[in-house]
């Protein structure tokens, strides 16, 4: 057997392997054969042949002609080369996995992308600035729970405890603004409730109205007491400021002194109206009843005889 010919045994083994792998490698062999045929043809000849449908592939003849110069090549080596080609295509597919279409076309156009030696460098994603969205690969699966639009964190503010809206408390201003509630509104409301108690026959309505009247009386009494205290303190502060201008040390009133001054002011008001004597009488009776609780009881006759 000459150097440029192929033996009968080799042809039979090739045909036998083709029959065994016909279902698996038919399409791949046809593409390889078509490529081998087109190597010696010009582009015009290939287009003309495909246009008039005269380009018919003869698988057996092409294989025999192609492998006539491969007398020493065995079927195992041919199949190994085909497996290497498939492995190379799979490797190339994995390398192109994380690349965009523009990057793949650019790499193939200038021929700089060598699939055999090029290392796949993972792309580092970053943001242009802190408010821009994160750039991610389209191959990565998006999680179900995700923040689509980044919004600034909501700061909950309670105006009751906020220094911007709380401001400073002005007792004199508060008294001037809300004095009408205790001087005008509450007395009117009390009169209305008293009329309602007289006309109504429902015990629940009467009881509720009486509770409201007692609550109003307590609030009015507390308001008058606080207003008197504020007046006493404001007068004392004015005097102390004038004394401080002269170089004296400021003096702060004690609670007992405030109570004493309140009592003196109340006596002066009652004396001006003429009700001071009756007020003192009632106060003495009240104090006597309190003192009577602490007096010792008289012993019984039975205990004295024993």
From TrEMBL:
Function: Component of the 90S pre-ribosome involved in the maturation of rRNAs. Required for early cleavages of the pre-RNAs in the 40S ribosomal subunit maturation pathway.
A cellular component term, taken from the record's GO annotations: nucleolus
Protein name, per record: rRNA biogenesis protein RRP36
Protein family according to the UniProt entry: Belongs to the RRP36 family.
Subunit text: Associates with 90S and pre-40S pre-ribosomal particles.
Keywords annotated in UniProt: Nucleus, Ribonucleoprotein, Ribosome biogenesis, rRNA processing
Biological process (GO), any one: maturation of SSU-rRNA from tricistronic rRNA transcript (SSU-rRNA, 5.8S rRNA, LSU-rRNA)
Matches recorded under Pfam families: RRP36 (PF06102)
Major localization listed first in the record, in broad terms: nucleus
Region (Disordered): 1-23, 280-306
Subcellular location: Nucleus, Nucleolus
InterPro entries with a match to the protein in the record: RRP36
């Amino acid at each position: 057997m000459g150097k440029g010919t192929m033996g009968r045994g080799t042809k039979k083994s090739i045909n036998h392997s083709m029959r065994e792998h016909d279902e698996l490698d038919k399409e791949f062999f046809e593409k390889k054969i078509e490529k081998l045929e087109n190597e010696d043809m010009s582009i015009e000849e290939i287009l003309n042949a495909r246009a008039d449908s005269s380009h018919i592939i003869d698988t057996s003849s092409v294989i025999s002609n192609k492998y006539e110069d491969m007398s020493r090549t065995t079927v195992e080596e041919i199949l190994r080369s085909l497996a290497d080609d498939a492995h190379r295509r799979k490797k190339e597919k994995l390398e192109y996995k994380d690349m965009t279409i523009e990057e793949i076309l650019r790499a193939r156009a200038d021929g700089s992308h060598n699939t055999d030696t090029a290392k796949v460098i993972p792309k580092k994603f970053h943001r242009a600035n802190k408010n821009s969205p994160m750039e991610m690969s389209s191959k990565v699966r998006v999680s179900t729970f995700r923040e689509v639009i980044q919004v600034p964190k909501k700061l909950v503010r309670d105006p009751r405890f906020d220094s911007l809206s709380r401001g400073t408390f002005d007792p004199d201003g508060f008294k001037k603004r809300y004095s009408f509630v205790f001087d005008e509104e509450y007395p009117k409301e009390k009169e209305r409730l008293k009329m309602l108690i007289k006309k109504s026959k429902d015990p629940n309505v009467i009881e509720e109205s009486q509770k409201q009247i007692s609550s109003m009386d307590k609030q009015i009494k507390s308001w008058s007491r606080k207003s008197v205290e504020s007046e006493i303190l404001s007068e004392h502060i004015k005097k102390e400021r004038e004394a401080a201008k002269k170089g004296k040390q400021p003096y702060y009133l004690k609670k007992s002194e405030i109570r004493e001054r309140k009592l003196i002011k109340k006596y002066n008001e009652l004396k001006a109206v003429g009700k001071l004597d009756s007020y003192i009488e009632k106060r003495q009776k009240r104090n006597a009843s309190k003192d009577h609780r602490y007096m010792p009881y008289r012993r019984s006759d039975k205990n004295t005889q024993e």
